[in-house]
């Protein structure tokens, strides 16, 4: 991550229509609410929010210091409990970074994307990066972890914890089986590992696993949005082997502020209508209109624009209305990222845009509660 490709690392909001992740809490955003209603607080810089079994929510949290990342389960009444902590995280030049995208498969297998953490630091010249001379906080940063649980996440009442020695074991390609002392077990392994690479301009270009998705009808494939290398990656689950499926080249800067082209910065990925739907945050100067939502064909990697002229989009959700047609929800991280402006949730349908919720403090993820939507 660097000044031209910076990812926001923040929080959560939840229930009713949309559950949004924002600055340490989950809150409910409804078209009938002018201001979201907090649902649960006390989260450690939550990154991604997904639906769990039996009305629960599952959230990844970056953590404030080295290796304090965790995954929590939130009950339907708004009570948080730790599923697993001690996950890799590190504090780099742009702040803390750790667990990001999550996917729950069959209620007891969890895939967790781990960000770049503190692997790189600012180089000698502006816009450059070099390996951290102090070394990274964990040897398993920049990975996708697979966590196989002995039971569904909603039935595990006592959490698990990874220790420093476990990180080393996982880095050696071995798995670690954790016991929570209550009869439950969790087997953790590194599914895929990524790495930064030489770059003629930045010295080193960071890889930043940021979002995960599975597509219907593809039980053996996992898709990753890499916000650092501006790409979508396809991961083969049986082997962990990965390949770049699609790349997002530098985007034209539509404003007179900053460079003529900017990084795309893909920061969420969803499966919908046979396509992978990806939001592009955009890089510096993060100005209004430079962000967009893209579609990626999982068979060919071909990309196309779904929505344009957005501002710092960070997540997207869809619903099919009862009278036909698709309504698209776009979560925007900030209306002015350079000056720490608030985010908002927008709805797009029938060629019109509606603000569902405004003044959100750093939203990073959302869940659509289809049961409460008509």
Tell me about this structure.
- The protein has 374 residues and is an all-beta fold.
- It has one helix and 34 strands.
- It has one helix spanning 164-171; strands spanning 18-22, 25-29, 37-41, 46-51, 57-61, 69-74, 80-87, 90-92, 95-97, 99-105, 109-114, 120-122, 129-131, 143-149, 160-161, 176-179, 185-193, 197-199, 203-205, 209-213, 221-226, 231-236, 242-247, 251-252, 261-262, 266-272, 275-280, 291-296, 303-310, 313-320, 326-332, 343-349, 352-360, 363-368.
- The strands form ten sheets. A five-stranded mixed sheet has the order 4-5-6-7-15, with no helix packed on it. A five-stranded antiparallel sheet has the order 10-11-14-17-16. Strands 20-21-22-23 form a four-stranded antiparallel sheet, with no helix packed on it.
- Strand 28 and strand 29 form a beta hairpin.
- The model is unreliable at 1-17 (pLDDT under 50).
Q: How do you describe this structure in short?
A:
The chain is mainly β and 374 residues long. The chain has one helix at 164-171, and strands at residues 18-22, 25-29, 37-41, 46-51, 57-61, 69-74, 80-87, 90-92, 95-97, 99-105, 109-114, 120-122, 129-131, 143-149, 160-161, 176-179, 185-193, 197-199, 203-205, 209-213, 221-226, 231-236, 242-247, 251-252, 261-262, 266-272, 275-280, 291-296, 303-310, 313-320, 326-332, 343-349, 352-360, 363-368.
Describe how the helices and strands are arranged.
Elements lengths: L17 E5 L2 E5 L7 E5 L4 E6 L5 E5 L7 E6 L5 E8 L2 E3 L2 E3 L1 E7 L3 E6 L5 E3 L6 E3 L11 E7 L10 E2 L2 H8 L4 E4 L5 E9 L3 E3 L3 E3 L3 E5 L7 E6 L4 E6 L5 E6 L3 E2 L8 E2 L3 E7 L2 E6 L10 E6 L6 E8 L2 E8 L5 E7 L10 E7 L2 E9 L2 E6 L6
Parallel strand pairs: 7-15
Antiparallel strand pairs: 1-2, 2-3, 4-5, 5-6, 6-7, 8-9, 10-11, 11-14, 12-13, 14-17, 16-17, 18-19, 20-21, 21-22, 22-23, 24-25, 26-27, 27-28, 28-29, 30-31, 31-32, 32-33
């Amino acid at each position: 991550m660097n000044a031209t490709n910076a990812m926001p690392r923040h929080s959560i909001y939840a229930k009713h229509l949309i559950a949004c992740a924002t600055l340490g809490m989950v809150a409910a955003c409804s078209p009938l609410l002018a201001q979201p209603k907090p649902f649960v607080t006390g989260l450690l810089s939550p990154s991604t929010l997904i639906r769990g079994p039996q009305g629960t929510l599952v959230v990844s949290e970056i953590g404030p210091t080295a290796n304090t990342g965790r995954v929590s389960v939130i009950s339907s009444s708004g009570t948080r409990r730790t599923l697993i902590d001690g996950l890799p995280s590190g504090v780099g030049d742009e702040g803390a970074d750790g667990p990001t995208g999550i996917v729950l498969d069959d209620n007891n297998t969890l895939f967790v994307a781990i960000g770049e953490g503190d692997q790189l630091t600012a180089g000698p010249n502006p816009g450059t990066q070099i390996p951290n001379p102090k070394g990274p906080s964990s040897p398993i940063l920049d990975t996708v972890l697979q966590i196989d649980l002995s039971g569904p996440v909603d039935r595990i009442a006592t959490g698990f914890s990874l220790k420093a020695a476990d990180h080393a074991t996982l880095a050696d390609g071995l798995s670690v089986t954790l016991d929570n002392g209550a009869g439950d077990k969790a087997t953790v392994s590194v599914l895929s590992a990524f790495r930064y690479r030489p770059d003629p301009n930045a010295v080193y270009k960071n890889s930043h696993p940021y979002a995960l998705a599975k597509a219907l009808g593809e039980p053996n494939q996992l898709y990753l949005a890499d916000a650092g290398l501006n790409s979508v990656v396809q991961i083969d689950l049986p082997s962990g082997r990965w390949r770049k499926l699609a790349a997002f080249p530098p985007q034209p800067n539509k404003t007179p502020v900053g460079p003529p082209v900017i990084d795309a910065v893909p920061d969420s990925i969803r499966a919908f209508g046979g396509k992978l739907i990806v939001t592009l945050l955009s890089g510096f100067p993060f100005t209004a209109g430079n962000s967009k939502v893209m579609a990626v064909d999982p068979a060919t990697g071909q990309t196309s624009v779904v929505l344009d002229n957005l501002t710092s989009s960070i997540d997207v959700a869809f619903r099919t209305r009862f009278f036909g047609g698709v309504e698209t929800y776009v979560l925007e991280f900030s209306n002015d990222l350079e000056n720490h402006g608030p985010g908002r949730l927008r709805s797009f349908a029938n060629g019109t845009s509606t603000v569902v919720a405004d003044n959100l403090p750093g939203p990073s993820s959302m869940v659509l509660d289809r049961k409460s939507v008509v």
